[in-house]
Every structure is written in C-alpha cells, then in structure tokens.
Amino acid sequence: MGDQIGQKFGNYRLVRLLGKGGTAEVYLGEHIHLGTQAAIKVLHSQIASDDVERFRSEARTVAHLMHPHIVRVLDFGVEGTMPFLAMEYASHGTVRTRYLRGTRLPLETIISYVNQVAAALQYIHEQKKLVHRDVKPENMLLRTDQDLLLSDFGISAIEQSKSDLITQKRVGLSASGTTSYMAPEQIQGDPHPASDQYALGIVVYEWLCGSRPFEGEALSVMYQHVHVPAPLLREKVPTISPAVEHVVLRALAKNYQQRFATIRDFAEALEHASHAREDATLPAWPLSGQPALNSPPAQQANQSGDSATLLAQTFPRAAPSPHSTQPVLNPTPAREKLDYPFTGGYKGPSTHATPKQDRQIVAEPNHAPKSTRIVTPVHQPGGLFRGKAMLLIGLVVVIVVGSVAFLLSSLNNHSAATPAGNIQSTVNTHASATTDASAIATAAANAYNAATAHGVMLGFDAQHTRVNPYEKVLNVINVSKLVQAWKVASGGRIGSVPTVADGRVYISVAGRVSNEGNMYALNVETGHIDWVKPYGTYYNGAGPTVANGTVYIGSDQILYALDAEKGAIRWTATTGGSIGTSPTLVNGVIYIGSDDGKLNAFDTSNGAKLWTYSVGGRILSSPAVANGIVYVGSDNGNLYAIKAGSGQILWTTPTKGKVRSSPAVVNGIVYVGSFDDNLYAIKAETGAVLWTAPTGDSIYSSPAVADGVVYVGSSDSKLYAFHASGCGNTTCQPLWTASTGGSIFSSPTIAKGVL
Hints:
- This protein is α+β, with helices and mostly antiparallel strands and about 750 residues long.
- Among the domains are: about 10-85, Phosphorylase Kinase, domain 1 (2-Layer Sandwich); about 95-285 and about 335-360, Transferase(Phosphotransferase) domain 1 (Transferase(Phosphotransferase), domain 1, Orthogonal Bundle), CATH 1.10.510; about 590-650, Thrombin, subunit H, CATH 2.40.10; about 655-755, Lipocalin, CATH 2.40.128.630.
- The protein has 14 helices and 38 strands.
C-alpha cells in the first residue's frame, strides 16, 4: 500500500502517511467538511461483502469504549473493499517513537505511563469483559509527553476472520513484533485479562533495562515465553531496586493465576515498590495453593512426526475458558488484598531468587546424553523439500575433504519409538493437536521465510548472531536411526561452509591442481549435481549467500551473482582486491570487503556499485548489518561502523590486534574478537568499548550470541562463554571454558540449547 494519499475514506481525505505495520497503515486525515484532523487506520486486508456487517459490528464495539486513556474512534466503514477506522489524532506520536528501542525510561515516567495504561485496561476488563491482547509501546499514543492514550482495542478481532489468536496473521510474525509481548496462555490459545498484565510487564521490563526479556525470531520468542523464566532485571541493571524487580517478575509469571489479581493491582504494587526502601520485605509469591508454572512439553519418543504435531507439542493449547471462542472473555478475578507498601528486611522473590544453576533455560525436551545431541542445520526458505514445512526433516551435513555427505533421519524407521510403528499413528493420536496447530505450522514456515528473506548467509542472519531458532535437536532415539542418504565426490578441496536454500546445497570447492573455485549446486534429496560453475580463485571460508534465486560468492577481485537454478552468471562486480569473506545481504544490497582494504556496497539487482569506503587495512571479516549500520573489522586492528545507505563513517574503535573475526550485533552491542586475544563488547551507536574479555590466544572465531551469553573460540584450543551484558567491570572473566584439543578458527552455532 502506501499510495492512498489524497484518497477519500468516509468523510476524511488522507493527507500523509503517519506509520505502517504488518496489518495496516495509519494516515493523517482531514475532515472534508469540518477541516478537523483524525488518524485514519486503513487495514491491508480486503474483506468480502458478506463480512462487512460483521466488521461494522465489531468496530461499533470498539467505538463504544469511553475512557480518558483510550483513543476515541470517530468513524468507521468500508471504502470499496478496504476497511478503515477514523480515530483521535495524537500529535506526539507513539511511546515507541518518543523512546526508541533500547532507551531506558526514568522510573517516574514509567509509573505515570503504567498507571494510565492500567486504568484503561482495568476499564475494558471490568466494564466491557474484553482482553486487549496487543499491549505494546507502538499502541500507546501521546497527546502530550505525559498524557497517554491506549489504542487498537479490539483491532485484533477486526483484522481477523475469526477470533482464534493463533493464526498466520496473529502468531506474531508481522513487523509489529507482537510476539515479543505475548503471554504464555495467549500463545497457547487461551487469553485472559492477566495476559494484558503480562504484556504490560514485558513493556515495563523493556523500559527499565532497555531490552525485552526474550529476543530472537518469532518461534524462538514464543518458546521462551512459555518455558523460560525472564532474566533477572538486576543482572542487567544492578541499580534497579529489588522491590521493583519483584513486582515486574510477578507480572511475568508463566501461570496467569500467579500474577496480580488485576491490572490495577499491578500498577499500584509497582508504584508502591518505586518508593520502597532497599531492605523492604517483599510479599511472597507465587500465591499459596496456585498451580505451578507451566512445565516444559513432555518428552516425545518420536520426534519425526509432522511439523504441526511437533509445534503442538512445543506450544500445547491450554484448556479453553468457557468464553475463549469469543472476543469477550473471562470476567476479572476478585481483587487480591495487597500488603504494600513494603516493609522490613528484603527477602527476595521466592521463585526467581534461586541460584543461577537452578534457573537454567530448558531447551528442546531431550534426555539424551549431551554427547549424542546433534545440531541439524536447516538453512532454506520454505523447507528442505520444496513445499514442506522445515521442521519436518532432521538433516546433518557432514563435510569431508573431497566429498559432501548427507545423513538423513529415516521417516519410516521409528518402530521402537512409535506405539503403532509408524508416523501415521502419531499423527492420528494427536489429530486434534495437529488440527489446532496447523495455523502455527503455516506461520512457522512463513516465519522462516521472513527470517531468510534477505538471504541465508554467514551467521544465519545479517547480524551474524549464529542462532537459527528453526533448527532441531536430534536425541539418542533418532540419532541411532541416521543413515547416509548420499555422498558426492567434489573432485577438490572443501573449505567453506555449505548453504542450504530452496532444496539445494550450495558449496564452493577448490580444484585439486589449480586454486580455481567451483560452485556446486546439489539436490538436497538425492545429492544429484544440478550444476557446477567455475567462478575464479577460491578462498577458504568464503561461503556463498543465497537469496531470491541468486547465489552470491566472492573471488579474486570479483563478486559473482549466479542463477541459483542453473548456475548462469547474472552479473559480476569488481572490488579491486581479493575477496576472502562471505557477502552479507540486506534490503537489496550486498556488502563485501576485500584485501585492498575497501568495504563495498553493490545493488543486488544488477551489481552496480553503490559506494566504497576505504578502511586502510585488509578486510577478512565478514560485515554485519543492523539498524542501517554496517560493522566490519580490518587487519589494521580497527572495527568500523559505516552508514549502510551512504557509506559514511560513523565511528572507528581500535583494538590492539588484527580483527578477522566477523562481528555479531545483538541488543545494541557489537561483539568481535581480536588478535590481541580479547573479545570486545562495543556500544553499537557510539563505538564505546563497554568491556573486554581475555582469552589465551588470537581470536579468529566469530562470536555467537544467545539467551544472554556470548560464545567465542580461541586459538588456545578453548571455547569461551561470557555474560553478554558484561560483568559490571571493564574486564570480564568467562562463565566457563571448554577445551577442544586444537585451535578454533570456526564460529560456534547455537540450536535449541546445543553449542
């Protein structure tokens, strides 16, 4: 969309675009008779004529919400087939635009905002028997910097053709990022008024420390909401008071009955906690007699069933409430008597104050010995086998000198694990769960497609986090069933990582005699060589990036774009120096460094050079891209931050050794290794060094970051793990180390709790 300016919707003419999300665009509209302004929300989806009355009925319900902190609906209707809402215009924008992601808000501002949001939510919970289901900073509008309005009440119902939360539209895969604030019971299909409390708790957590408790792709975040305790706030910001932390963590209890009885109680408790003494006694929770937190899904003997069943086991549906099939949900529970303000000595929250070793994250259910757990890469948009969801297949790629071998878990060899001896019995046994979760399975496939839309590349994503939430962990049951599917002689030396995309394995191979590089495209099911293409001089480790039917690979001063289907050269681009790293692709631009010390940006459509920036030293670090900034290291010992759009330098941060480690960017921090034996944590916006962590030797390995921990290998033959948030000092010691027996030049990859 975005082309509606000047058009008439009801009595309003659209003046300019205010913002857009995954399901709608919001315009500034002007009343054609009165000249007054309104915010016009135009939904992306068109609706059929027989749905118009239902839309009007639902919109009428929203229009009848009358509260000083709820945005007023002025008009609604359908222009042609385009549904729209005319709402009160808040000239100061949203809380998200006022405070950008990563910003920590003053506690007094947080209390003011929470009181206003809670008042609006209490009103719809008590008076209207509604659950908002989409509380987040983007839906908080500002009349002034202090006067807040909550928006999008009931819009989730209007935007869907049915009220079930877990559909392709509402599983949180849109750009709006709704999944980041979604309560466990809402993910499981049974929202309650306390679901809004959980979402507001996530917002407060984010405002207090600058980051949300759970980060990653949609499915990974959903899994964490259901099974993983929120990290302690005081581990991220030690100055946060224990009382405030206690209140926020209670609002984030996995079981909604263990949260505050009402959203008003949460707001009152937070305000009291903000004035509590450091040694205040905290009320015990969870409440006595309440159910325990949601437990991880039961171990399933057979992990090769269809993707819908696997997802149903990971996100089991809660028992539906009597009203869960309607937008009008359970009435608010009786108010709990509060014992705030806090008094006496601080005892700490009873659930979250356990020792750290007792708070380990529970990953994919797996009781196998760790030595038998195998990470199975799945690097392909839409699934390894065309048209199938990606969670269906367990795949292990084994690289050996001169050949490529694949091991596949046989789908028909699980009689020992499956009661009826085949996959179909499992599907039948879980038919209900499969039906309920089919939309999740579709959304999961779409999530992977969205995550890889800009390319499957080094480190999985453009930020090089090396975390793929769509990968699967095999256990002792199905590891024993692995058989070699095929092996292909490549006729040369393999030194790069493979990339799997669109049903093919792409890998570069050096010739046995010359150092000429050849790109192989192999059918992932059969190992058949679909094509081989010479592309110039081969460089170790410079693996391909694949996106939109094109394979990108660097060579001696040339970047190649090859047709992924046939191997034909689409275009070439000259860099001026040999390319020894993998290209990084974001928003139609390829970023690649070369050993002449230049970082280049090329248009992916035709190879046109957009800009070049000279860093003055060889670049053997693959660039990472996040929030419109390209980060790359150089042999001159510097890390550079360069504007992705223009090639303008933002900052340079020196280390004391060559930087050949490819940076990883997570939560506003750039992690990168140096030949001075240190891992650096650098503030992404300014280049300020937050902390360093020593290892025993030079770091070639690129960091991987997951669940608040950064992992990196060293030439001293050890793998290191550090707190991603640091240790409160400028120099940090490792959480643990693991000896490997040889220098580590590769980069760690994380999948479902396995490194």
